[in-house]
Structures are given as structure tokens and as C-alpha cells.
């Protein structure tokens, strides 16, 4: 149990460092993000740095991901990486809508943005960026994935995770479940400026070979670009692209 506890803490620290990219973060900030006391966070970060899994800027003292993680990622990409299949779809979404387009992957109870493409419209919401993590149910990508899980899996998720603790009452279980029902009716998920005022998002799930929602396509933009008459049009377009990408991945 002690070894498992250490591994869990290391995982929490690495995820905190990843969430701080590209600017990095201080030991204190990373400790808070990982739910650890500063001395514990510093001890773990120092050990990870010795293995080149994290790196520390000598001037600012901020921590970032280390080069060894890149090499490990290259090895894992052969089995898990589908970004090459998704890139052309994401670029086309941004071109056709004018909005910023994204591809996110499910990792346990979270989504991680792995691809981003800016649209032509000059005003952007800046909610998503590559590497950012959200709990399932938060942001349109995570809501789309959560909505396509079995009811039992959704119940178990809310037994483990309380998104409102970090993201406010709009992300409590009751309002998220209401948005799940709406998503299941429409097929696509809508984030009505719940993370940043004036910033809307629409997401659609992408399915793996077993038919599980493992990824999501999404677009974000300012509220004036997501008026009621345009949302269904954007949602249908997202669903078409998500269906196409699911077919590519499953082939």
C-alpha cells in the first residue's frame, strides 16, 4: 500500500507539471495542484528531476516536463497516438467554422487537449490549449464523452469526482446530469460559457474500436458566434467530422 501511495503521488505531481505547460510552475503551486505539502512536492520533484522526468529552470525555479518523458512518449505513441489521424479533421473544422478547433483524449476521469488549431475569426476564447486537463463533464469535450458512457459508469464517476469543488456550482452533479440528457438528445454537447464568461464550446465524442468514447472533437469561440440559430448547424458539422474520425480510427 505504501508503494501504491507513492506512485499515486508521483502521478499527481507529473499531471500537475503537465497542466502548467508551457510556462511551468513553482514548487508551491505544483504542491497545491497535486494536493501535497510543499516539502513533499519538492522531494518528489527533485527525485523526478534526477531521472530527467521533470526539469527546473535555474533562473525562475519553475518546473516543466523533462526530456525523458518525450522519449517515453515516443514509445507509447505507436500504441496510443491517433493525432496524425485527427490532425486533418481538426484543421478542416477550424477552416470550415472559423472557430478554434480541438481534439481531446480521455484519460481516466479527465480529458486532455492534444491538438489545437486556431480559426480565422479574430476573436478567440482562449479556454483550451494543448496539455490542459478538465474533469469529465467540464468543457464540451468532457461533457460529450461523459454523456456517451453507460449510466453505471456515470454514477461511479460522480461517486469519485466532485467537479464543482474546482469549477463552481454550475458543474455540480445535478446541472451536469441535466446537460448529459440534453447531449444525449442532440448528439453533441454544449458548454454555455460555464468556464469563462462569454466563451462557448460545442463538442462531439469520437469512438474507439470497441465503441467507447475515447476522444472528442470540439470548437470554442465567443458567445456572439454561438447564437441559437447557429448552434445546431455547428453541432451537426461536429458530429459529421466526429463520425468520420471514428471510422478512420476503427479501420
**CATH architectural arrangement of the largest domain:** 2-Layer Sandwich
CATH topology of the largest domain: Beta-Lactamase
CATH superfamily of the largest domain: GAF domain
Strand order within the widest beta sheet: 5-4-3-8-7-6
Give the helices and strands as they follow along the chain: HHHEEHHEEEHHHHEEEH
Distance between the termini: 41 Å
Write down the Rg.
Answer: 19 Å
Low-confidence stretches: none
Strand fraction: 15-25%
What is the CATH domain class of the largest domain?
A: Alpha Beta
Bulk shape? globular
Helix content: 40-55%
Largest sheet: 6 strands, antiparallel
Return the domain count. 2
Number of helices: 10
Keywords: DNA-binding, Transcription, Transcription regulation
GO biological process, one term: negative regulation of DNA-templated transcription
Domain HTH iclR-type: 4-67
Domain IclR-ED: 68-251
Written description of the protein model:
By secondary structure, the chain is of the alpha+beta class. The protein has 2 domains: 70 residues, Orthogonal Bundle (Arc Repressor Mutant, subunit A), CATH 1.10.10.10; 169 residues, Beta-Lactamase (2-Layer Sandwich). 50% of the residues lie in helices and 19% in strands. The chain is built from 10 helices and 8 strands. A 6-stranded antiparallel β-sheet has the order 5-4-3-8-7-6, sandwiched between helices. β7 and β8 form a beta hairpin. α1 packs across α2, α2 packs across α3 and α5 packs antiparallel against α10. The N and C termini lie far apart (41 Å). The model has no long low-confidence stretch (mean pLDDT 90). Keywords: DNA-binding, Transcription, Transcription regulation. InterPro entries: GAF-like_dom_sf, HTH_MetabolicPath_Reg, Tscrpt_reg_IclR_C, Tscrpt_reg_IclR_N, WH-like_DNA-bd_sf, WH_DNA-bd_sf. One of its GO terms (biological process) is negative regulation of DNA-templated transcription. This is IclR family transcriptional regulator. It comes from Mycolicibacterium hodleri.
Amino acid at each position: 500500500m505504501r508503494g501504491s501511495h507513492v506512485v499515486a503521488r508521483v502521478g499527481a505531481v507529473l499531471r500537475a507539471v503537465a497542466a502548467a505547460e508551457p510556462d511551468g510552475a513553482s514548487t508551491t503551486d505544483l504542491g497545491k495542484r497535486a494536493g501535497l505539502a510543499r516539502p513533499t512536492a519538492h522531494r518528489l520533484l527533485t527525485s523526478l528531476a534526477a531521472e530527467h522526468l521533470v526539469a527546473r529552470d535555474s533562473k525562475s525555479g519553475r518546473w516543466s516536463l523533462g526530456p525523458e518523458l518525450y522519449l517515453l512518449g515516443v514509445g507509447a505513441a505507436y500504441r496510443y497516438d491517433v493525432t496524425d489521424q485527427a490532425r486533418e479533421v481538426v484543421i478542416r473544422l477550424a477552416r470550415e467554422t472559423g472557430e478554434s478547433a480541438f481534439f481531446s483524449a480521455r484519460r481516466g476521469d479527465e480529458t486532455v487537449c492534444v491538438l489545437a488549431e486556431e480559426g480565422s475569426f479574430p476573436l478567440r476564447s482562449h479556454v483550451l490549449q494543448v496539455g490542459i486537463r478538465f474533469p469529465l463533464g467540464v468543457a464540451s469535450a468532457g461533457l460529450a464523452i461523459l454523456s456517451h458512457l453507460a449510466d453505471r459508469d456515470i454514477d461511479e464517476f460522480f461517486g469519485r469526482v466532485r467537479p464543482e469543488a474546482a469549477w463552481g456550482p454550475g458543474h455540480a452533479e445535478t446541472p451536469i446530469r441535466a446537460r448529459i440528457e440534453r447531449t444525449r438528445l442532440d448528439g453533441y454537447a454544449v458548454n454555455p460559457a460555464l468556464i469563462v464568461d462569454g466563451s462557448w464550446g460545442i463538442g462531439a465524442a469520437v469512438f474507439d474500436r470497441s465503441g467507447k468514447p475515447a476522444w472528442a472533437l470540439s470548437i470554442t469561440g465567443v458567445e456572439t458566434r454561438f447564437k441559437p440559430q447557429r448552434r445546431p448547424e455547428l453541432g451537426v458539422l461536429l458530429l459529421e467530422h466526429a463520425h468520420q474520425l471514428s471510422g478512420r480510427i476503427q479501420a
